[in-house]
């Protein structure tokens, strides 16, 4: 059976449509990448101190008072180095007043972050949220359903893990 050659305008229209689809997929992929990079960027500020304490600035903090989403209390250094005697921590990283938490000081501040598995998972919560958002973009926008489900389940696992570990 002989094939009929398509007209020049038909071929141009098909290639333009293909270019639009490619551009759409590239744009949606960039949105997903920006979401993930923003999640890592936001999480890394606390995660680096929770995972890799610098200069031995680790110790324990006893939660004494909480107000305006911050809790404060005395800090006891493990290394005996110079450290502020009173430190602050995000209220979401604590449980109750009187709790003693293993923490690491952010250099040059009086802020601390929790260490250990709970502290590490808590510091990566923004990245978990970014994974969940990127899952919707990848699964719906790029129509990569399995990859979207994997991203979403991973993000939810990080957030639930932090909730359980704290």
Automatic annotation (TrEMBL):
Superkingdom of the organism of origin: Bacteria
Keyword list, A-Z: Membrane, Transmembrane, Transmembrane helix
Residue stretches spanning the membrane: 21-44, 124-142, 149-165
Protein name: Uncharacterized protein
Organism: Streptomyces tardus
